[in-house]
Design a protein that fits this description.
The structure is a single chain. The chain folds into two domains: about 70 residues, 2-Layer Sandwich (Ribosomal protein L11, N-terminal domain), CATH 3.30.1550; about 60 residues, Arc Repressor Mutant, subunit A (Orthogonal Bundle). The protein has about 140 residues and is α+β, with helices and mostly antiparallel strands. The chain contains five helices and five strands, in the order βααββαβααβ.
């Protein structure tokens, strides 16, 4: 089968509906929204996390394949640090503080970046912390 395109989305597991933001993205590729939502919800009904990464491989004959990925980094950080909401003004109003041990534990657990060094993954996680208003204490 010839691959027409590959799509990457972040969706709540088990709660896909044929409304925005999913509908405009999939609609422009001609994917039947009701069938996609039913299929995705069946695949992800037992997943217990806030958001997951989803890859959709669309073939030339408009058939598609759904690949479920890992939990998103932001929702994993919320779960690990037990935070309800992140800062609305990162850098000005920082809510939490973290240390190297927590960054290292997230980096080793979330080592989905297979071709990257662990130091690079730590820097990416630290950048995520800064962008959501979490301080880093050395």
């Amino acid at each position: 089968m010839i691959i027409k395109s590959k799509l990457k989305l972040i969706i709540k597991p088990g709660k896909a509906t044929p409304t925005p933001p999913i509908a405009p993205i999939l609609g422009q590729y001609g994917i039947n929204l009701m069938n996609f939502c039913t299929k995705f919800n069946l695949l992800s009904k037992n997943i217990n996390c806030e958001f997951i990464h989803v890859k959709i491989i669309l073939f030339q004959d408009l058939s598609y394949e759904i690949l479920l990925g890992n939990e998103s980094l932001i929702s994993y950080i919320k779960k690990i640090l037990k935070i309800e909401k992140f800062s609305k003004k990162p850098g000005i109003e920082n809510k939490e503080s973290t240390n190297f041990e927590k960054i290292n534990s997230i980096a080793t657990y979330r080592n989905i970046f297979e071709k990257k060094k662990i130091s690079s993954v730590r820097k990416m996680i630290l950048g995520t912390f800064i962008s959501v208003g979490i301080n880093y204490d050395k």
